[in-house]
Structures are given as structure tokens and as C-alpha cells.
Amino acid sequence: MNVVITGAGNGIGLELVKVFAKKSTNDIFAIVRNEGHVEKLKSISPKVIPVVQDLSKNDFKNFKKTFTSVPHVDILINNAGTFVKKPFFEIDDEEWHHLFNVNFFAVVRMIRYLLPLMGQKHPSHIVNIGSIGGFQGSKKFPGLTAYSASKSALSGLTETLAEELKYQNIKINCLALGAVQTQMFERAFPNHSAATSPEEIALYIHDFAIEGHKFFNGKTLPVSTSTP
Q1: Burial of 82 by CB count in 10 Å (0-12 exposed, 13-18 middle, 19+ buried)?
Q2: DSSP string of 24-48?
Q3: CA end-to-end span of the chain
Q4: Cα separations in angstroms, 75 against 13, 28, 137, 188
Q5: pLDDT tens-digit profile of 179-212?
Q6: Positive or negative CA dihedral for 55, 131, 119, 206?
Q7: Using CA atoms, how far apart are residues 127 and 75, in angstroms rounded to an integer?
């Protein structure tokens, strides 16, 4: 399978690369913003192809060159994300724009550019990594208004885009993750420990990416054992 994973430099993304690399028939395209992660990713397996791309910028020329010889993308996992933790009235327009650019519009761009390589004769599965903070009816936390709003938008995109893609042999779902012990979680909740590790959640996402499209499409599914 050809698997594309964004935010692959650390945390959940890096663990996903490791899990998929265990199967020798997988080619993993690991999207990273920082070129400093390239050698680390290459050392995992010869099947890992690092791709340096700043998803906050709408310049995908080098990205497109990487995929000119790729016949098909089986799985796309939109994992890259960022957050702002500030009271609502302290978040300026630039911060709102940057957060939505990374958490929402970068996903739009990834799907748009890879869509010609997906579906048709072979099924494809798009997995958007959302947040329980953006899941309707879940407990919300002060200071994470912008982050939660961007993840809510991602859920809406998932639900509506599924209708447009369902006849193209492409399924799309969103996993609304709860607390996972990542660097982002530690910055957002410095006095808490998450019950789930990046390694554990990566195994779950891996299995869902391979099998979940057989049971779900256009769904945002909460994956959370607790709140911080």
C-alpha cells in the first residue's frame, strides 16, 4: 500500500510511520515541515520516503513532484496540527488564521492534491485526525476556543466531503482523539498525564485506516477514555 502521513516528525505521526513500516509491502510518504526530521525517518526503513512540506503554505510544487511517479494512494492520514491556548479575547487574527491554515486548510489542500491518485479501481481511505475538543457535546476547556473550532470544521468537512466522494471508491472519516501524551498535550495541560500513549493510539489509527472504511464513511468517531 501507498500511505501518506502528515505531521510525521514526532508524536503520533512518527509512531504511525513506524507501525506502517513494519509491513514490507507498504511505502510510507512521511510529510514533515522540518528538514531536521528527514534522517530520523529514513533510518526507520527504506520504505519510508520523507517529504519536506510546510503545510501552512499554499506552494506544493515540490510535493507534487514527489507523487508524479506514484500510481495510487491507498491511505491518507491528515495528522499534522497546531494549537493556541489563550483566552478568546487575547487571540488575534493572525493566530486564528495560522491555526485554521494548519488544522483545516492544509487538510483541504492535501486532499485536493492527492485526490487524482485515490479511489477509482482501488479503494482509498482518508483519515482526518480530529479532537474530542471539536466533538459536539464533549467537555470543552477554556483557552482552546480556536483549536476546538478548527477541529469542529474538520469534522464538518469530513461529513460533507464523504457525500461527494462516495461514488469514487473513496471513504473519509475523522477520529476525534482524546488525551494522548504528546508534546502538544503536555503544553496544553502541563499538570496532567494522559492515559494513552502515542504508540498505543498509533496502533489504533493504523488498524482503523486499514479496516475502518469497511464500516464507516463520513463519520467523526470519538476515541477517548477520559478528559484531562
Answers
A1: middle
A2: TT-EEEEEES-GGGHHHHHTT-TTE
A3: 36
A4: 14, 10, 29, 29
A5: 656 666 556 667 766 677 889 999 999 999 999 9
A6: positive
A7: 8
Q: Band the pLDDT of 26: cuts 50, 70, 90.
A: very high
The strand pairing partners of 3, in sequence order, are: 28, 75
Q: Which residue has the cell 503520533?
A: 12
Q: Taking a C-beta distance cutoff of 8 angstroms, is the pair 198, 179 a contact?
A: no
Backbone φ and ψ of 75, nearest 5°: -135, 130
Q: What is the pLDDT of residues 34-52, one digit of tens each?
A: 899 999 999 999 999 999 9
- Mean per-residue pLDDT for 10-32? 95
Say if residues 64 and 114 touch (Cβ distance below 8 Å). no
CA distance linking residue 97 with residue 84, whole number of Å: 11
As a 3-state breakdown, the chain gives helix, strand, coil percent values, each rounded to 5, of: 45, 20, 40
CA-based R_g, the chain, Å: 17
This prediction has a pTM of: 0.92
Please report which confidence band the pLDDT of residue 56 belongs to, taking 50, 70 and 90 as the band edges: confident
Per the DSSP assignment, residues forming a β-bridge with 223 are 177
Taking phi over 0 as left and psi of -120 to 50 as alpha, with beta for the rest, 59 belongs to beta
